[in-house]
Amino acid sequence: MEKRHSYSRTFIVLLIMLVIFVLSFLTNILGPIIPDIIDSFELSLGLAGFLPFSFFVAYGVMSIPSGMLVERYREKKVMLAAFALAAIGSLLFVLMPGFSMAMLSLFLIGSGMAMLQVAFSPLLRAAGGEEHFAFFSVLGQLVFGLASFISPHVYTYLVTNMGPGSNPNALISLMESIVPAELNWLSLYWIFGLLAVSMILILLASRFPKVALNEDEKAGSWQIHRELFRNKTVILFFIGIFCYVGTEQGIATWMSEFLSQYHGVNPQAEGAQAVSWFWGTMTLGALLGLILLKFFDSQKLLMAFTTAAMICLSFALLGNVQIALYAFPLMGFFLSIMWSVIFSLALNSVEKHHGSFAGILCSAIIGGAIFPLVIGALGDGVGLKIALILLFVSLAFIFSVGIWAKPLVKNKTLKA
């Protein structure tokens, strides 16, 4: 009996890792395909900025309600609904491709991904055990980074092997039969839809453990959220997360288009690979960050990594093509610790209502909607290079977090 119980827990942990992989695969592919969408639908940079806006605004809209949905309907139903939204969004886009449908599709997929992000954390704690939660959380981050690294390569494989002169296999032949030749990048959304439907079938066949939510995992009432929003510290950390996600998505969204515009880089090959390595170096940075946080104060580490990110951004915007192809991906390395450090400093800066505060911080992911949109709009007027200077402002605010944050509990180092 004990063996069977252990197997079911192991299965749930593996299932959550698969969920995280698919979540990341769907979330972080937009940057590489932005140049293709711009060309296919003849969009300005400002209009193209509405695409990441549609996706990430869903996080701002759905993060807090998702916590309430998990409390009422439990994890499995919420995750099934999340993948159903992702499947519907993907299939709508491939069946009726167009700019308006792209925005609706991305909003539906983004809503599903926000629901997943809220649902799987308490499930992972219950299945893996509280004593192993930190380990599995880090493992989840690595899986997330791996999927973000792989998805641009899948995109490159699909679009470079479709069309005249290619040597198609069964997958490529199928995609060529169902995707218009001039929209070969749309094949990726068939993959999205297939992944989402597959996950629905896997979840339906899975048995979930009963999860008792910890106090800091409960969403809390709207009254508690209003109370927290009157707290200056909460507002400042909200802005911190807003700036971080805005910076991350500003780079990931516009990197390939910048390299194409200013250096003539092929967005379907070198551009997609640069985005892939952005997520790859972020994963490596997260691993190193785990070690460094055992030796250095998290606030000082945040300021050091932010300074390095600013230097990388300067080289990326002002350097030649070789420098830009290294500097943009390297930014991922220095952005890697920012989310976890800001999030932990935030939660350690308030005495209660951690679950509600976490929901507020997750809703700050809407920064990933605002920054790419503003950069795109500015790019139409003053050029993408000057528009990306906006990211120095967000990085400066992130740097300031290391100065003004006064956590009740600091990170424990080996020296301490």
The arrangement of helices and strands along the chain is: HHHHHHHHHHHHHHHHHH
How many individual β-strands?
0
Which fold name corresponds to the CATH topology? Answer: Growth Hormone, Chain: A
Shape: globular
Uncertain ranges: 1-7
Give the C-level CATH assignment: Mainly Alpha
The CATH architecture: Up-down Bundle
Radius of gyration equals: 21 Å
Question: Can you put this structure into words, describing what you see?
Answer:
- With about 425 residues, the chain is mainly alpha-helical.
- It has helices at about 1-25, 30-40, 45-50, 50-95, 100-130, 135-160, 170-180, 185-205, 220-230, 230-265, 265-290, 300-320, 320-335, 340-345, 355-365, 365-380, 385, 390-405.
- Helix 4 (about 50-95) packs across helix 15 and helix 10 packs parallel to helix 15.
- The N and C termini lie far apart (about 45 Å).
Summed up, what is this model?
With 416 residues, the protein is mostly helical. Helices cover 80% and strands 0% of the residues.
Topology:
Blueprint: H1 2-27, H2 30-41, H3 45-48, H4 50-95, H5 99-128, H6 133-161, H7 170-178, H8 187-204, H9 222-229, H10 232-263, H11 267-292, H12 298-318, H13 321-335, H14 338-347, H15 354-363, H16 367-382, H17 384-387, H18 390-404
Helix pairs in contact: 1-5, 1-6, 1-8, 2-10, 2-11, 4-5, 4-8, 4-15, 4-16, 6-11, 10-11, 10-13, 10-14, 10-15, 10-16, 10-18, 11-13, 12-13, 12-14, 12-18
